[in-house]
């Protein structure tokens, strides 16, 4: 096997789906954590939908699996237990409230900082839950805590 095809194989392997548990179990616990190809993720079951994201908060690496889920501006968010940043479950956007300093009487508005937390794909097959890591090419802030020195699962090399 040449170098190029073995690199291609390991790239394909990195994005193959991994079984992380049984549907019944996650429905009961409403969240589970898993390691998918050396990347720590949390999978939430919320209002009939599954959402997987990097487990460490994009802000400073807080443990999102210990946060509460709340709706902000009608969007379900995980609230990081460390500094209360709000991250949408569906898209990984960071939400914040802004006020118009020229009009202090106006109501604060919810705004998006853009996608900050990497979201992964969840599929269900025959009662099993699978996670496929995101292949989105953009750099996501949560990547910093999912790789390198912050990664809990060290590769053996
Ligand atoms: Fe999550 Fe600061 S580490 S809000």
From TrEMBL:
GO molecular function per UniProt: 2 iron, 2 sulfur cluster binding; metal ion binding
Keyword Acetylation attached: yes
Alphabetical keyword list: 2Fe-2S, Acetylation, Iron, Iron-sulfur, Metal-binding, Phosphoprotein, Repeat
Pfam family, one: Rieske_4
InterPro entries: Rieske_2Fe-2S, Rieske_2Fe-2S_sf, Sol_Rieske_ferrdox_dom
Cofactor(s) needed for function: [2Fe-2S] cluster
Residues in Rieske domain copies: 17-131
Gene3D superfamilies linked: Rieske [2Fe-2S] iron-sulphur domain
This protein's record includes keyword Iron: yes
Name used for this protein in its record: Rieske domain-containing protein
Species: Dipodomys ordii (Ord's kangaroo rat)
């Amino acid at each position: 096997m040449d170098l190029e095809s073995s690199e291609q194989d390991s790239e394909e392997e990195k994005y193959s789906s991994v079984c992380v548990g049984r549907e019944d179990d996650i429905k009961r616990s409403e969240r589970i954590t898993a390691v998918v190809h050396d990347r720590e993720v949390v999978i939430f079951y919320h209002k009939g939908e599954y959402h997987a994201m990097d487990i460490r908060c994009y802000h400073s690496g807080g443990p999102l699996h210990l946060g509460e889920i709340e709706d902000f501006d009608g969007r379900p968010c995980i609230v990081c237990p460390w500094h209360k940043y709000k991250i949408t479950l569906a898209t990984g956007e960071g939400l914040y409230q802004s006020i118009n300093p020229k009009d202090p009487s106006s109501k604060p508005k919810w705004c998006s900082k853009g996608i900050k937390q990497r979201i992964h794909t969840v599929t269900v097959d025959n009662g099993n839950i699978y996670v496929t890591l995101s292949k989105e090419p953009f750099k996501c802030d949560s990547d910093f805590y999912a790789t390198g020195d912050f990664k809990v699962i060290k590769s053996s090399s």
